[in-house]
């Protein structure tokens, strides 16, 4: 159950109004005077949430003091809003690079109730809309025409222009708030857990079709969706295998192996061309896998078998694959092309950078890495940049 309140009339005010289904203007520059006081070194903020924007060109950080927005390339802080020790922001979601954000309170002293989604206009430095719920908000996803709010066992889809409720979805228990939505095209594709353990639900709003995919035997730990909504990748609580599916018909296209030991997968990310897939886990590694499917041809190429689509990659498949009918599946698995080692046990999220063959890694300890991988020879990635964006002495 949800309630809605807005500052009448609800509209995207400021220098960058967002017409429905149009690219937001990226020229918005926040007013420095609105940034608020910076915490002293003894009051360094604790990170509560990290998330990339829709094109992975920026990321937002929710802290127990407020929130901050950073540009990825070149790396720099764009602005911050520090509200003091009672200004905890548990979730902050950007809408590309415009002045509209979705904010949910969090931490020991939340700025807003964790059961509310506040629509923040940074040009006006105020909330212009509010969505209230009976339980804690686990995640918020934005596209130009939709707001998706994820609760523990329910998902609400709203029209962005007037906050009208369009759709409700029941899910299995979803404590992580797993949900993804496509960002390209006039009609949304939404990805969320189904009502059974290991089941994926895909909502195709353009064709008004719902597709259910039994992706894993164990519970879902993480999933990702391409920007056009044609491909999805899933990982289970075991964290050893990652599966890539056709979102249109639910067919399994490829299976890759992160490792042999159980791991908690923290994030999955497709490259913009869906040529590569990045995976981060609590093992302190980020893996890059080569994908062998052309997402642009999925709609007309459904007759191809999985073996035809998943052609072996010499740099990523076991040399023992010729006896895969005898040995366990482990030996015929497709392995990563490249990897990067980090501190084990920390949570990292990953995305592909705008520079060719680069990966951006964000850590919940405030770390920012930019790494480059060799698409031909693979191996260990090269670290290009590192910053700790929570430390005031760091200069970007």
From TrEMBL:
UniProt KW Iron keyword: no
Any one GO CC term of the record: phagophore assembly site membrane
Keywords assigned: Repeat, WD repeat
Membrane topology: Peripheral membrane protein
UniProt xrefs under InterPro entries: PROPPIN, WD40/YVTN_repeat-like_dom_sf, WD40_repeat_dom_sf, WD40_rpt
Composition skew (Polar residues), residue ranges: 28-37
Subcellular location: Preautophagosomal structure membrane
Pfam family, one: PROPPIN
SMART domains: WD40
Cytoplasm listed as a keyword: no
Tree of life domain: Eukaryota
Region Disordered: start-end pairs: 1-43
SUPFAM superfamilies: WD40 repeat-like
PANTHER family the record matches: WD-REPEAT PROTEIN INTERACTING WITH PHOSPHOINOSIDES WIPI -RELATED (PTHR11227)
Family that this chain belongs to: Belongs to the WD repeat PROPPIN family.
Name of this chain's protein: Autophagy-related protein 18a
